[in-house]
């Protein structure tokens, strides 16, 4: 049975997800789109899809069985609450929301409904390299994890649109989520260190070094560099009691020319995580067809938002800032 999906937000990632839902994946059809910019929505709409004036109208439409939210983070709260009110499964790009208060409202609404409808777009959990790394840690022969180094590098970000807060409230959420998942641990506090500023980013505070303190005592250090020019480079290395496990350097064709012998580096997230996004949606489609969700939950979205908030406070205070969650509702227990 084909899942009829409506996509809200037809910018960069919205268009990429429409491509995969239309051309790559089975058992799914994009029947509706909506964007603040109607012209962009019309351009991005696949043949036969209806263009809606507002996200609310799309969510309520009978033809839409499930929703994909790819709008900007600050718009997610209202759209998620509308999906819950309509009882429709929803895939929401990260960040789930942009404040603790918004995250709590979303959790409260989903808990009141009594079943999971929300899946948050933390695609690293669906990436084969991260899944292999987690399997090694979970097998236990390297002993307990002690430290995890997470590196997040973008070639560049749009000047003016990407602010100094965004490494923490838009980018760190990925590293926070993958640390909790990979280490089966919880974040209890955050410190931030600001090194020498790169001259490539103008006024942008870049790079940023974040230390996440986990409940077990493991420390995660996260390098976020968003203007590093050479490409999109995501790394991860877990130091354990008896050894080290790391993500591989992705195999790619070896190029030899007058600059030397080298391998190409992905240009951006679309290229590096192309299979992970496909797998993320394969699993979401199966769950949404059963009326639910799988993988990263609204709880995971909430914890990442709290971590981002604490990191932003830590920039100002210069100190360790605690991450204090409410007690976890039974709905989100594995
Ligand atoms: P983008 O290119 O700016 O696209 C966002 C689109 O949503 C724009 O067309 C925007 O219109 C539209 N929009 C904003 N608010 C809306 C609303 N209330 N209703 C309907 N449409 C709305 O940004 P993007 O790079 O695609 O990012 C979108 C989301 O995906 C962000 O939350 C971002 O963090 C996330 N993302 C995730 C990943 C990942 O690795 N998982 C990668 C990239 C992006 P205007 O431009 O007119 O505001």
Please work out how many helical segments DSSP would assign.
10
Helix coverage percent = 25-40%
> How many structural domains does the protein architecture include?
2
Overall shape: it is globular
- Beta-strand portion reads 15-25%
Question: What is the mean pLDDT?
Answer: 96
SSE string, helices as H and strands as E: EHEHEHEHEHEHEHEEEEEEEHHHE
- CATH architecture type of the largest domain: 2-Layer Sandwich
Task: Write the CATH homologous superfamily of the largest domain.
Answer: Dihydrodipicolinate Reductase, domain 2
- Number of beta strands: 15
CATH topology title of the largest domain: Dihydrodipicolinate Reductase, domain 2
Structural class label? alpha/beta
Cα-based radius of gyration, to the nearest Å: 20 Å
Low-confidence stretches are none
- What molecules are bound to this protein? NADP nicotinamide-adenine-dinucleotide phosphate
